[in-house]
From TrEMBL:
Keyword Transferase applies: no
CDD domains referenced in this protein's UniProt entry, alphabetically: REC
Protein name: Response regulator
Organism listed in the record: Methanosarcina acetivorans
Occurrences of domain Response regulatory (ranges): 2-117
Entry keywords, A to Z: Phosphoprotein
Alphabetical list of Pfam families matching this protein: Response_reg
Keyword Phosphoprotein: yes
GO biological process: phosphorelay signal transduction system
Positions carrying 4-aspartylphosphate: D52
InterPro entries tied to this protein: CheY-like_superfamily, Sig_transdc_resp-reg_receiver, ST_Response_Regulator
Amino acid sequence: MKVLLVDDDPVFLELSKTFLEVFHDINSDTVESARQALEKLDELSYDVVVSDYDMPYMDGISFLKTIRDKRINIPFILFTGVGKEEIKSQAIENGVDSLIQKRGDPKAQYSELSKRIWQIVKNGSG
């Protein structure tokens, strides 16, 4: 299994990659922008995209819309610190597979993230 992690915070990306690979046996590539992620998706195959919402130039919802507009049929998890209802409803309207809040205990949030990734891949949703 291979996951594409997208976040404009390089420290958070490295932490995410480490947690998923070391503790949850999930391989991942990391990119710091939606534009870089779109380039990766053109080149390589992934089982799931995990993206932040609040990024410069293209936020997580715009990134999700772009993926769906390009008919890239890949499960998409929005992993965000922004908890506004408006963002949640936009994510759902645009076909997000899951939405996870970045807050609280990192061990618990990565455990939740890995559980969702495995469920999505196992169930073949997307």
